[in-house]
Structure formats: structure tokens, C-alpha cells
Amino acid sequence: MNNISIIIPVLNEAKNIARLLVYLQHNTSPKLISEILVIDGGSTDGSQEIVSEISKKHPNIVGINSPKGRAKQMNLGASQSKGTVLYFLHADSVPPLNFDRYILEALLKGAKAGCFKMNFDSPHWWLKLAGWLTQFNWKSCRGGDQSLFVEKTVFENLGGYNENFIVCEDNEFIYKLYDQYDFEVLPYWLTTSSRRYVTNGIWTLQYHFWMIHLKKLCGATPKTLEAYYLKYIH
Prior knowledge:
Blueprint: E1 4-10, H1 17-26, E2 33-40, H2 47-57, E3 61-65, H3 70-79, E4 85-88, E5 93-94, H4 99-108, E6 113-120, H5 125-133, E7 148-151, H6 152-157, H7 169-180, E8 183-192, H8 195-200, H9 202-217, H10 222-232
Parallel strand pairs: 1-2, 1-4, 2-3, 6-8
Antiparallel strand pairs: 4-7, 5-8, 6-7
Helix pairs in contact: 9-10
């Protein structure tokens, strides 16, 4: 039986990580989930202490310290995982009920990797439209906020996440998946936070995201993308 290692990269997620871990503990099957690995990139807001306290009651939850950088954190989690399936999940994204069962059913049907449809926790029409588009199996509609499941052997065959990318690391890896394997968008809704849009302004942030993706398509280096992100978004 396949079993899932949930890998959650965090950096200063004290407001979200406890709620997510409680949700995962109450909405997963111990027969399907091998472990929940929380990979911390140097939090200073108490995230590590929160995970440590929760792990005392739930030994399948493991906190791991890592160098900063989501690609580095996720690769480290994958390298220390025990499951045959990796499920990468952001700390501010909540997967649908029975997500573990849906993932394994998709793999049994031949998918090698995939994600869920995504809703933002916002009534704004643009974010509702952006979420609605995630149901289509186009790689241009993909992103890390939708979470990602992938067979561990596939992840290893592709070399994991490219640690040169500080931004777009999810897209860079997902595009490789689309090019070489069967990718499935499961017909169940994951909910993710709209906090970055609230903080930066919806249209401002969307414009800068478009610019980053355009620059990447035009061949910009990871360092160029990172510099743009730090200047206009971070």
C-alpha cells in the first residue's frame, strides 16, 4: 500500500501552522499517512516551538530545521521522508476532506503527480475567477498554493526542486512533471489564503506575478526573478 509523507515548508507561519496540523490530524487516515514533516527555514515568530509542542502529542508530526528557501526546505523534507508518495502543502492552504484517499486513488489509476482545484478565501471576483481557472489541466494554471502530490520515485528521477529558484520553484518543477509524466488535477477544492493579495493589493500583486512569469518565459535567470520579487513583492 502506498503511503503519503506530507511535507510543509514554513517560515514565520505561527498564525497558520497549528490550525493546519490540527486539521490534518483530524482529517487523515493513519493507514494512509506515513508522517507530517514541517520543514522550518529559520522562523523567528515561534513557529518552531508550536510544532515542537504539537509533535509531543502526535509523534507522526516531525519538525525539521533547514536552510532558508522553499526549494531547499522541500528537498530536505523529501530526502528524510518515509512515504512512497510526497505531498507538498503550503502552511496557508487547506486540502479537501479525504484528500489522502483521493491522492492514492488517482495514483492507482495511473497518475504520477497532480494537485487539487483551488479556492481563495476571498469573495473578490478576480480571485474567484483565478481559482475557477485552476480546474483546467493546463500547466499555465498551476502553482504551489494548489499543493502537489508526486510519487517519490518520480520526484527523485526529476532531481527534485531546483534550489537556484527562490521564486517560481514550484512552477519550474511542475512544468518538468507535465513534460514527462501524467499529471492529474483532482476535482476537489483546496482553500488557500489571499493574505498576500490583501497585503500588496490585488491588482498590484497580480501584475507583478504576471511580470515574473513573463520574465521566466523570456529566459530570466533565477537571480533576476528573485531580485524582482524582493523589490516589488517581498
